[in-house]
Amino acid sequence: MDNSFASLPPAFYTRLMPTPLPAPYLVAVSAPAAELVGLTPAQLADSLDVLIGNAAPERALPLAAVYSGHQFGVWAGQLGDGRAMLFGDVATAEGPMELQWKGAGLTPYSRMGDGRAVLRSSIREFLCSEAMHGLGIPTSRALSVAGSDQGVMRETVETSAVVVRMAPTFVRFGSFEHWFYRNKNDELKILADYVIDRFYPALREEDNPYQALLAEVTRRTAQMIAHWQAVGFMHGVMNTDNMSILGLTLDYGPFGFMEAFDSDHICNHTDQQGRYSYANQPQVGHWNCYALGQALLPLIGEVEATQAALDVYQPAFAAKMDELLRAKLGLSQLEQHADADRALFDAMFALMDANHVDFTLFFRRLSGLKAADTSGDEPLRDLFIDRPAFDAWAAQYRARLQAEASDDSARQLAMNKVNPKYVLRNYLAQIAIEKAQNKDFTEVERLLSVLQRPYDEQPEHDQYAALPPDWASHLEVSCSS
Fold first, then answer.
1. How far is CA 318 from the centre of its chain?
2. Where does ATP bind (predicted)?
3. What is the value of pTM for the model shown?
4. Residue 43: count of CB within 10 angstroms of its CB
Protein backbone atom coordinates (compact mmCIF):
# COMPACT_ATOMS: atom_id res chain seq x y z
CA MET A 1 0.00 0.00 0.00
CA ASP A 2 1.10 3.53 -0.85
CA ASN A 3 -0.55 6.93 -0.48
CA SER A 4 0.43 9.30 -3.25
CA PHE A 5 -2.03 11.98 -2.13
CA ALA A 6 -0.21 12.14 1.21
CA SER A 7 2.89 13.26 -0.69
CA LEU A 8 1.18 16.61 -1.34
CA PRO A 9 1.86 19.43 1.15
CA PRO A 10 -0.02 19.26 4.50
CA ALA A 11 -2.37 22.08 3.47
CA PHE A 12 -4.21 19.62 1.21
CA TYR A 13 -5.41 17.33 3.98
CA THR A 14 -5.49 16.47 7.67
CA ARG A 15 -3.89 13.27 8.89
CA LEU A 16 -6.10 11.40 11.37
CA MET A 17 -7.40 7.98 12.30
CA PRO A 18 -11.04 6.86 11.99
CA THR A 19 -13.24 6.61 15.07
CA PRO A 20 -13.88 2.94 15.98
CA LEU A 21 -17.35 1.42 15.90
CA PRO A 22 -18.42 -1.29 18.36
CA ALA A 23 -19.32 -4.88 17.44
CA PRO A 24 -18.88 -4.60 13.66
CA TYR A 25 -20.45 -7.05 11.23
CA LEU A 26 -19.91 -7.65 7.54
CA VAL A 27 -22.84 -6.87 5.25
CA ALA A 28 -21.44 -7.57 1.79
CA VAL A 29 -18.31 -7.71 -0.35
CA SER A 30 -17.94 -7.20 -4.10
CA ALA A 31 -15.83 -10.07 -5.39
CA PRO A 32 -14.93 -8.29 -8.70
CA ALA A 33 -13.84 -5.16 -6.82
CA ALA A 34 -11.81 -7.29 -4.42
CA GLU A 35 -10.15 -9.08 -7.32
CA LEU A 36 -9.18 -5.73 -8.81
CA VAL A 37 -7.04 -4.96 -5.75
CA GLY A 38 -5.71 -8.51 -5.44
CA LEU A 39 -7.92 -9.77 -2.61
CA THR A 40 -10.53 -12.47 -2.14
CA PRO A 41 -13.87 -12.14 -0.34
CA ALA A 42 -12.54 -14.54 2.29
CA GLN A 43 -9.53 -12.32 2.96
CA LEU A 44 -11.83 -9.33 3.32
CA ALA A 45 -14.12 -11.19 5.70
CA ASP A 46 -11.06 -11.87 7.86
CA SER A 47 -10.23 -8.14 7.82
CA LEU A 48 -13.48 -6.79 9.26
CA ASP A 49 -11.77 -4.33 11.60
CA VAL A 50 -10.01 -2.77 8.61
CA LEU A 51 -13.18 -2.63 6.52
CA ILE A 52 -15.06 -0.69 9.20
CA GLY A 53 -12.13 1.53 10.17
CA ASN A 54 -11.34 0.05 13.57
CA ALA A 55 -7.83 -0.70 12.32
CA ALA A 56 -5.68 0.60 9.49
CA PRO A 57 -3.77 -1.60 7.05
CA GLU A 58 -0.02 -1.73 7.34
CA ARG A 59 1.60 1.31 5.68
CA ALA A 60 -1.73 3.14 5.52
CA LEU A 61 -1.63 6.91 5.98
CA PRO A 62 -5.26 7.85 6.70
CA LEU A 63 -6.25 11.39 5.86
CA ALA A 64 -9.23 13.61 5.11
CA ALA A 65 -8.84 15.90 2.11
CA VAL A 66 -9.94 19.52 1.98
CA TYR A 67 -11.95 20.93 -0.92
CA SER A 68 -14.71 23.47 -1.56
CA GLY A 69 -17.54 23.72 -4.04
CA HIS A 70 -20.77 25.06 -5.42
CA GLN A 71 -23.83 23.37 -3.94
CA PHE A 72 -27.10 23.77 -5.85
CA GLY A 73 -25.43 26.55 -7.83
CA VAL A 74 -24.37 28.56 -4.76
CA TRP A 75 -20.79 28.95 -3.57
CA ALA A 76 -20.60 26.98 -0.32
CA GLY A 77 -17.00 27.68 0.66
CA GLN A 78 -14.84 25.10 2.37
CA LEU A 79 -16.24 21.58 2.49
CA GLY A 80 -13.88 18.59 2.48
CA ASP A 81 -14.08 14.96 3.52
CA GLY A 82 -16.62 15.30 6.29
CA ARG A 83 -17.11 11.57 6.75
CA ALA A 84 -14.59 10.03 4.37
CA MET A 85 -10.96 9.13 4.94
CA LEU A 86 -8.47 8.03 2.32
CA PHE A 87 -6.18 5.35 3.71
CA GLY A 88 -3.99 4.54 0.73
CA ASP A 89 -3.68 3.32 -2.83
CA VAL A 90 -2.64 0.02 -4.34
CA ALA A 91 -1.32 -0.92 -7.75
CA THR A 92 -3.77 -2.79 -10.00
CA ALA A 93 -3.86 -3.97 -13.59
CA GLU A 94 -5.87 -0.83 -14.36
CA GLY A 95 -3.45 1.51 -12.59
CA PRO A 96 -3.35 2.84 -9.01
CA MET A 97 -6.56 2.56 -7.03
CA GLU A 98 -7.23 4.60 -3.90
CA LEU A 99 -9.20 3.09 -1.01
CA GLN A 100 -11.36 5.24 1.19
CA TRP A 101 -13.58 4.70 4.20
CA LYS A 102 -16.93 6.49 4.02
CA GLY A 103 -18.64 6.86 7.38
CA ALA A 104 -15.52 6.46 9.52
CA GLY A 105 -16.16 9.33 11.94
CA LEU A 106 -15.58 13.02 12.52
CA THR A 107 -12.97 14.97 10.57
CA PRO A 108 -12.05 18.67 10.66
CA TYR A 109 -14.36 19.07 7.64
CA SER A 110 -17.49 17.50 9.14
CA ARG A 111 -19.02 20.93 9.79
CA MET A 112 -22.31 20.24 11.64
CA GLY A 113 -22.30 16.54 10.75
CA ASP A 114 -21.39 13.49 12.79
CA GLY A 115 -18.97 11.95 10.31
CA ARG A 116 -21.03 8.80 10.07
CA ALA A 117 -22.93 7.02 7.31
CA VAL A 118 -26.02 4.93 7.98
CA LEU A 119 -26.67 1.37 6.84
CA ARG A 120 -29.41 2.53 4.45
CA SER A 121 -27.25 4.97 2.48
CA SER A 122 -24.21 2.70 2.63
CA ILE A 123 -26.06 -0.21 1.02
CA ARG A 124 -27.40 2.14 -1.66
CA GLU A 125 -23.91 3.42 -2.49
CA PHE A 126 -22.39 -0.06 -2.42
CA LEU A 127 -25.01 -1.53 -4.75
CA CYS A 128 -25.15 1.39 -7.16
CA SER A 129 -21.38 1.72 -7.52
CA GLU A 130 -21.15 -1.89 -8.60
CA ALA A 131 -24.34 -1.69 -10.68
CA MET A 132 -22.95 1.26 -12.64
CA HIS A 133 -19.74 -0.64 -13.26
CA GLY A 134 -21.82 -3.56 -14.52
CA LEU A 135 -23.57 -1.18 -16.91
CA GLY A 136 -20.20 -0.02 -18.28
CA ILE A 137 -20.56 3.54 -16.98
CA PRO A 138 -17.44 5.28 -15.57
CA THR A 139 -17.73 5.14 -11.79
CA SER A 140 -16.01 4.78 -8.47
CA ARG A 141 -16.20 1.24 -7.11
CA ALA A 142 -17.33 -0.24 -3.80
CA LEU A 143 -15.26 -2.94 -2.13
CA SER A 144 -17.39 -3.68 0.93
CA VAL A 145 -19.98 -2.46 3.38
CA ALA A 146 -19.81 -3.23 7.10
CA GLY A 147 -22.21 -2.23 9.85
CA SER A 148 -22.49 -1.57 13.57
CA ASP A 149 -25.50 -1.19 15.84
CA GLN A 150 -24.23 2.17 17.09
CA GLY A 151 -27.03 4.65 16.49
CA VAL A 152 -26.83 7.90 14.56
CA MET A 153 -29.56 10.48 14.12
CA ARG A 154 -30.97 11.30 10.70
CA GLU A 155 -34.73 11.79 10.35
CA THR A 156 -34.86 8.97 12.91
CA VAL A 157 -32.21 6.99 14.76
CA GLU A 158 -30.46 4.60 12.36
CA THR A 159 -27.51 2.24 12.65
CA SER A 160 -24.01 3.04 11.42
CA ALA A 161 -22.12 1.57 8.49
CA VAL A 162 -18.90 2.10 6.56
CA VAL A 163 -18.36 1.62 2.84
CA VAL A 164 -14.88 1.03 1.49
CA ARG A 165 -14.97 2.68 -1.89
CA MET A 166 -12.31 2.83 -4.57
CA ALA A 167 -11.26 5.10 -7.41
CA PRO A 168 -7.96 6.03 -9.07
CA THR A 169 -8.42 9.37 -7.31
CA PHE A 170 -11.09 11.20 -5.36
CA VAL A 171 -9.86 14.64 -6.49
CA ARG A 172 -12.87 16.63 -7.66
CA PHE A 173 -13.73 19.93 -9.30
CA GLY A 174 -14.11 21.48 -5.86
CA SER A 175 -10.52 20.53 -5.00
CA PHE A 176 -9.38 23.14 -7.53
CA GLU A 177 -12.06 25.67 -6.61
CA HIS A 178 -10.79 25.56 -3.02
CA TRP A 179 -7.43 27.09 -3.96
CA PHE A 180 -8.74 29.44 -6.65
CA TYR A 181 -11.17 31.18 -4.29
CA ARG A 182 -8.40 31.57 -1.72
CA ASN A 183 -6.05 33.11 -4.28
CA LYS A 184 -3.57 30.29 -3.62
CA ASN A 185 -2.12 29.85 -7.09
CA ASP A 186 0.91 27.92 -5.88
CA GLU A 187 -1.29 25.25 -4.33
CA LEU A 188 -3.54 25.30 -7.40
CA LYS A 189 -0.54 24.53 -9.59
CA ILE A 190 0.71 21.79 -7.25
CA LEU A 191 -2.67 20.05 -7.45
CA ALA A 192 -2.94 20.43 -11.22
CA ASP A 193 0.58 19.10 -11.72
CA TYR A 194 -0.18 16.14 -9.44
CA VAL A 195 -3.31 15.25 -11.42
CA ILE A 196 -1.58 15.65 -14.80
CA ASP A 197 1.55 13.72 -13.87
CA ARG A 198 -0.32 10.85 -12.20
CA PHE A 199 -3.43 10.49 -14.35
CA TYR A 200 -2.92 12.44 -17.60
CA PRO A 201 0.84 12.24 -18.31
CA ALA A 202 0.35 12.55 -22.08
CA LEU A 203 -0.92 16.11 -21.54
CA ARG A 204 2.61 17.19 -20.60
CA GLU A 205 3.40 17.17 -24.32
CA GLU A 206 0.72 19.80 -25.04
CA ASP A 207 1.61 23.47 -25.51
CA ASN A 208 -0.62 24.38 -22.56
CA PRO A 209 -1.04 21.30 -20.31
CA TYR A 210 -3.55 23.07 -18.05
CA GLN A 211 -5.81 23.97 -20.96
CA ALA A 212 -5.47 20.39 -22.19
CA LEU A 213 -6.41 19.14 -18.73
CA LEU A 214 -9.58 21.22 -18.72
CA ALA A 215 -10.48 20.05 -22.23
CA GLU A 216 -9.96 16.38 -21.35
CA VAL A 217 -11.95 16.60 -18.10
CA THR A 218 -14.71 18.46 -19.95
CA ARG A 219 -14.84 15.77 -22.63
CA ARG A 220 -14.94 12.95 -20.08
CA THR A 221 -17.64 14.69 -18.07
CA ALA A 222 -19.81 15.21 -21.16
CA GLN A 223 -19.47 11.56 -22.16
CA MET A 224 -20.20 10.31 -18.64
CA ILE A 225 -23.43 12.32 -18.49
CA ALA A 226 -24.44 11.02 -21.92
CA HIS A 227 -24.09 7.53 -20.43
CA TRP A 228 -26.32 8.62 -17.53
CA GLN A 229 -29.00 9.94 -19.86
CA ALA A 230 -28.92 6.86 -22.06
CA VAL A 231 -29.57 4.50 -19.15
CA GLY A 232 -32.00 6.80 -17.28
CA PHE A 233 -29.67 7.40 -14.32
CA MET A 234 -30.15 10.53 -12.19
CA HIS A 235 -27.38 11.52 -9.79
CA GLY A 236 -29.45 13.82 -7.62
CA VAL A 237 -26.67 16.09 -6.27
CA MET A 238 -24.45 17.32 -9.10
CA ASN A 239 -22.59 19.82 -6.92
CA THR A 240 -19.06 20.69 -8.04
CA ASP A 241 -17.67 18.93 -4.98
CA ASN A 242 -19.29 15.72 -6.30
CA MET A 243 -17.71 15.93 -9.77
CA SER A 244 -14.69 13.69 -10.42
CA ILE A 245 -11.62 15.08 -12.14
CA LEU A 246 -11.47 11.76 -14.03
CA GLY A 247 -15.06 11.87 -15.28
CA LEU A 248 -16.27 9.14 -12.91
CA THR A 249 -19.68 8.89 -11.30
CA LEU A 250 -18.89 9.87 -7.72
CA ASP A 251 -20.71 10.23 -4.38
CA TYR A 252 -23.93 8.22 -4.58
CA GLY A 253 -26.64 9.83 -2.48
CA PRO A 254 -30.24 10.48 -3.60
CA PHE A 255 -29.74 8.85 -7.00
CA GLY A 256 -32.46 7.13 -8.99
CA PHE A 257 -33.02 5.20 -12.20
CA MET A 258 -35.88 6.47 -14.32
CA GLU A 259 -39.00 4.33 -14.17
CA ALA A 260 -42.17 5.97 -15.57
CA PHE A 261 -40.51 8.36 -18.00
CA ASP A 262 -40.77 12.03 -17.13
CA SER A 263 -38.03 14.20 -18.59
CA ASP A 264 -38.45 16.67 -15.71
CA HIS A 265 -38.30 14.00 -13.01
CA ILE A 266 -36.45 15.04 -9.82
CA CYS A 267 -35.04 12.06 -7.94
CA ASN A 268 -33.82 14.11 -4.94
CA HIS A 269 -36.63 15.13 -2.60
CA THR A 270 -34.37 17.89 -1.21
CA ASP A 271 -34.06 19.51 -4.67
CA GLN A 272 -37.25 21.55 -4.51
CA GLN A 273 -36.32 23.71 -7.52
CA GLY A 274 -35.46 20.78 -9.78
CA ARG A 275 -31.94 21.97 -10.53
CA TYR A 276 -30.75 18.38 -10.86
CA SER A 277 -33.69 16.91 -12.77
CA TYR A 278 -33.08 14.33 -15.48
CA ALA A 279 -33.52 16.90 -18.26
CA ASN A 280 -31.15 19.37 -16.58
CA GLN A 281 -28.23 17.01 -16.02
CA PRO A 282 -26.44 17.75 -19.34
CA GLN A 283 -26.52 21.52 -18.88
CA VAL A 284 -25.56 21.26 -15.20
CA GLY A 285 -22.57 19.16 -16.22
CA HIS A 286 -21.57 21.96 -18.60
CA TRP A 287 -22.07 24.57 -15.86
CA ASN A 288 -19.84 22.57 -13.53
CA CYS A 289 -17.11 22.42 -16.17
CA TYR A 290 -17.31 26.22 -16.37
CA ALA A 291 -16.77 26.35 -12.60
CA LEU A 292 -13.68 24.18 -13.05
CA GLY A 293 -12.53 26.37 -15.93
CA GLN A 294 -12.83 29.44 -13.71
CA ALA A 295 -10.67 27.71 -11.10
CA LEU A 296 -8.01 26.75 -13.66
CA LEU A 297 -7.93 30.14 -15.38
CA PRO A 298 -4.86 31.38 -13.43
CA LEU A 299 -2.91 28.39 -14.77
CA ILE A 300 -4.30 28.42 -18.31
CA GLY A 301 -3.60 32.13 -18.53
CA GLU A 302 -6.14 33.28 -21.13
CA VAL A 303 -9.93 33.45 -21.13
CA GLU A 304 -10.01 32.51 -24.82
CA ALA A 305 -7.95 29.38 -24.24
CA THR A 306 -10.17 28.44 -21.30
CA GLN A 307 -13.30 28.93 -23.40
CA ALA A 308 -11.82 26.83 -26.19
CA ALA A 309 -11.33 23.96 -23.76
CA LEU A 310 -14.91 24.28 -22.49
CA ASP A 311 -16.25 24.32 -26.05
CA VAL A 312 -15.41 20.62 -26.17
CA TYR A 313 -18.47 19.83 -24.02
CA GLN A 314 -21.43 20.23 -26.35
CA PRO A 315 -20.06 18.32 -29.35
CA ALA A 316 -18.67 15.58 -27.08
CA PHE A 317 -22.03 15.14 -25.36
CA ALA A 318 -24.01 15.21 -28.62
CA ALA A 319 -21.69 12.74 -30.36
CA LYS A 320 -21.73 10.28 -27.45
CA MET A 321 -25.50 10.60 -27.04
CA ASP A 322 -26.07 9.94 -30.74
CA GLU A 323 -23.73 6.95 -30.58
CA LEU A 324 -25.47 5.49 -27.53
CA LEU A 325 -29.00 6.04 -28.85
CA ARG A 326 -28.19 4.47 -32.22
CA ALA A 327 -26.83 1.45 -30.37
CA LYS A 328 -29.90 1.31 -28.12
CA LEU A 329 -32.16 1.32 -31.19
CA GLY A 330 -29.95 -1.10 -33.14
CA LEU A 331 -29.11 1.42 -35.86
CA SER A 332 -25.86 1.57 -37.79
CA GLN A 333 -23.75 4.71 -37.90
CA LEU A 334 -24.92 6.01 -41.27
CA GLU A 335 -24.15 9.69 -41.79
CA GLN A 336 -26.88 10.13 -44.38
CA HIS A 337 -29.48 9.28 -41.71
CA ALA A 338 -28.09 11.57 -38.98
CA ASP A 339 -30.80 14.25 -39.10
CA ALA A 340 -33.62 11.75 -39.52
CA ASP A 341 -32.27 9.70 -36.61
CA ARG A 342 -32.28 12.70 -34.27
CA ALA A 343 -35.89 13.39 -35.28
CA LEU A 344 -36.69 9.73 -34.56
CA PHE A 345 -35.04 9.99 -31.13
CA ASP A 346 -36.88 13.20 -30.28
CA ALA A 347 -40.22 11.69 -31.30
CA MET A 348 -39.45 8.59 -29.24
CA PHE A 349 -38.71 10.53 -26.06
CA ALA A 350 -41.76 12.75 -26.55
CA LEU A 351 -43.91 9.62 -26.91
CA MET A 352 -42.34 8.02 -23.83
CA ASP A 353 -42.85 11.23 -21.86
CA ALA A 354 -46.51 11.57 -22.85
CA ASN A 355 -47.22 7.96 -21.87
CA HIS A 356 -44.89 7.76 -18.82
CA VAL A 357 -43.45 4.54 -20.18
CA ASP A 358 -41.05 2.56 -18.02
CA PHE A 359 -37.61 3.58 -19.29
CA THR A 360 -35.73 0.31 -18.83
CA LEU A 361 -38.54 -1.96 -20.03
CA PHE A 362 -39.12 0.17 -23.14
CA PHE A 363 -35.59 -0.16 -24.44
CA ARG A 364 -35.23 -3.81 -23.47
CA ARG A 365 -38.49 -4.79 -25.18
CA LEU A 366 -37.71 -2.67 -28.23
CA SER A 367 -35.28 -5.33 -29.37
CA GLY A 368 -38.24 -7.67 -29.99
CA LEU A 369 -39.76 -5.40 -32.63
CA LYS A 370 -39.35 -6.84 -36.14
CA ALA A 371 -38.37 -4.78 -39.15
CA ALA A 372 -41.00 -6.18 -41.53
CA ASP A 373 -44.08 -7.01 -39.43
CA THR A 374 -45.82 -6.19 -36.16
CA SER A 375 -45.96 -9.71 -34.72
CA GLY A 376 -43.49 -8.93 -31.94
CA ASP A 377 -44.94 -5.58 -30.90
CA GLU A 378 -47.35 -6.53 -28.11
CA PRO A 379 -44.99 -6.65 -25.09
CA LEU A 380 -43.70 -3.19 -26.04
CA ARG A 381 -47.05 -1.80 -27.21
CA ASP A 382 -48.65 -2.79 -23.88
CA LEU A 383 -46.46 -0.21 -22.10
CA PHE A 384 -48.34 2.62 -23.85
CA ILE A 385 -51.68 4.23 -23.09
CA ASP A 386 -51.84 5.88 -26.52
CA ARG A 387 -51.27 2.83 -28.67
CA PRO A 388 -52.04 4.47 -32.03
CA ALA A 389 -49.30 7.00 -31.25
CA PHE A 390 -46.93 4.14 -30.55
CA ASP A 391 -47.95 2.45 -33.80
CA ALA A 392 -47.16 5.63 -35.74
CA TRP A 393 -43.70 5.93 -34.19
CA ALA A 394 -43.03 2.21 -34.66
CA ALA A 395 -43.80 2.62 -38.37
CA GLN A 396 -41.13 5.34 -38.60
CA TYR A 397 -38.68 3.11 -36.75
CA ARG A 398 -39.42 0.17 -39.04
CA ALA A 399 -38.84 2.32 -42.10
CA ARG A 400 -35.44 3.27 -40.69
CA LEU A 401 -34.58 -0.39 -40.04
CA GLN A 402 -35.62 -1.37 -43.54
CA ALA A 403 -33.50 1.43 -45.00
CA GLU A 404 -30.40 -0.41 -43.82
CA ALA A 405 -31.78 -3.93 -44.35
CA SER A 406 -31.51 -4.64 -40.63
CA ASP A 407 -31.41 -8.31 -39.60
CA ASP A 408 -33.84 -8.94 -36.73
CA SER A 409 -31.81 -11.62 -34.94
CA ALA A 410 -28.47 -9.82 -35.13
CA ARG A 411 -30.05 -6.54 -34.10
CA GLN A 412 -31.78 -8.10 -31.09
CA LEU A 413 -28.53 -9.60 -29.86
CA ALA A 414 -26.73 -6.27 -30.27
CA MET A 415 -29.49 -4.25 -28.59
CA ASN A 416 -29.64 -6.56 -25.59
CA LYS A 417 -25.93 -5.93 -25.01
CA VAL A 418 -26.56 -2.20 -24.50
CA ASN A 419 -30.10 -2.08 -23.08
CA PRO A 420 -30.03 -3.51 -19.55
CA LYS A 421 -32.71 -5.82 -18.30
CA TYR A 422 -31.83 -5.00 -14.68
CA VAL A 423 -31.14 -1.66 -12.99
CA LEU A 424 -31.10 -0.70 -9.31
CA ARG A 425 -34.67 0.47 -8.90
CA ASN A 426 -35.26 2.26 -5.61
CA TYR A 427 -37.80 -0.27 -4.41
CA LEU A 428 -35.34 -3.13 -4.95
CA ALA A 429 -32.76 -1.31 -2.87
CA GLN A 430 -35.40 -0.61 -0.22
CA ILE A 431 -36.33 -4.29 0.11
CA ALA A 432 -32.66 -5.22 0.51
CA ILE A 433 -32.15 -2.43 3.06
CA GLU A 434 -35.13 -3.45 5.20
CA LYS A 435 -33.91 -7.05 5.33
CA ALA A 436 -30.37 -5.92 6.14
CA GLN A 437 -31.68 -3.78 9.00
CA ASN A 438 -32.88 -7.10 10.48
CA LYS A 439 -29.44 -8.66 9.89
CA ASP A 440 -30.55 -10.59 6.80
CA PHE A 441 -28.03 -9.73 4.09
CA THR A 442 -29.07 -12.34 1.55
CA GLU A 443 -31.06 -9.85 -0.54
CA VAL A 444 -28.09 -7.46 -0.74
CA GLU A 445 -25.94 -10.32 -2.00
CA ARG A 446 -28.57 -11.56 -4.45
CA LEU A 447 -29.26 -8.10 -5.84
CA LEU A 448 -25.54 -7.42 -6.19
CA SER A 449 -25.12 -10.63 -8.18
CA VAL A 450 -27.99 -9.71 -10.52
CA LEU A 451 -26.76 -6.14 -11.07
CA GLN A 452 -23.24 -7.24 -11.90
CA ARG A 453 -24.67 -8.86 -15.08
CA PRO A 454 -27.41 -6.39 -16.05
CA TYR A 455 -27.51 -7.30 -19.76
CA ASP A 456 -27.86 -11.06 -19.26
CA GLU A 457 -31.34 -12.58 -19.34
CA GLN A 458 -31.02 -14.37 -15.96
CA PRO A 459 -34.57 -15.81 -16.25
CA GLU A 460 -34.40 -17.09 -12.67
CA HIS A 461 -34.37 -13.42 -11.58
CA ASP A 462 -37.15 -12.07 -13.83
CA GLN A 463 -38.90 -10.53 -10.83
CA TYR A 464 -36.10 -7.95 -10.58
CA ALA A 465 -36.96 -6.70 -14.07
CA ALA A 466 -40.70 -6.27 -13.51
CA LEU A 467 -42.63 -3.03 -13.31
CA PRO A 468 -42.36 -1.53 -9.82
CA PRO A 469 -45.22 -2.18 -7.38
CA ASP A 470 -47.64 0.61 -6.52
CA TRP A 471 -46.05 1.24 -3.12
CA ALA A 472 -42.74 2.09 -4.82
CA SER A 473 -44.19 5.36 -6.13
CA HIS A 474 -44.25 6.69 -2.57
CA LEU A 475 -40.53 6.17 -1.95
CA GLU A 476 -38.52 9.36 -1.50
CA VAL A 477 -34.76 9.85 -1.31
CA SER A 478 -33.09 13.02 -0.11
CA CYS A 479 -29.60 14.31 0.59
CA SER A 480 -29.61 12.27 3.83
CA SER A 481 -29.92 9.16 1.63
1. 19
2. 80, 82-83, 102, 114-115, 165, 172, 251
3. 0.97
4. 11
